[in-house]
Amino acid sequence: MQHLLDFIIEHTLEEQHYLVARATMNVLEMFWRRQEAGDFWLIRPKRCEGPFEHIHRRDVIAHLQARGADLEGFKQELHAMLAAQIAYAELILRNANNQLGRDLVERFALGQRSFIEQLQAAAHGLIASQPRMVVVKGGQAQTAVRTGHLSLVR
Asked: Considering only CA atoms, which of 92, 73, 74 is closest in space to residue 84?
């Protein structure tokens, strides 16, 4: 179920989400707002005037379990939310193909994928080739500015 929550937060087209989770003692209402704190869900008992608990997305499922929430019902809510997002994305893609032409849409999609792959390769290259410090022969000359005898080698 964690992958569903992560997918919603990372790929949603919406600025906010609201859903309800039934629990043994009450019903919990849950808000997520991109602008306020994108990695946190705000949770409290439904119709409660009290403050929300800010729960990190990695802890939401454990928090719901601890409160006796119906996790199967919660999963169905997430599926419904994702189904709406996917239907909307498919509508945008279909309309773009119809109005702008399939070639243009495919060229934009290919360009976006290529850009992402280049970013990933660049990030991997930065991580893989960590700079090392090595001693360089200094010639034993002294200057007014202390620079030491180390240089960055890649």
From this structure: 92
- Lookup: tokens for 76: 């169905």
Report the C-alpha gap between 102 and 95 in whole angstroms.
10
pLDDT tens sequence across 38-93: 789 999 888 888 888 899 999 999 999 998 899 999 999 999 989 998 999 999 99
Degrees, nearest 5: CA angle 35-67-26: 90
Across 34-71, the runs of DSSP E, i.e. the strands, are 40-45, 53-56
Q: Are 44 and 51 in contact (CB under 8 A)?
A: yes
* Residue written as token pair 């989770």: 21
Please tell me the pTM assigned to this model: 0.65
Q: Which helix (H) or strand (E) holds 108?
A: helix 102-128
Nearest residue to 107 (alpha-carbon basis) of 95, 98, 97: 97
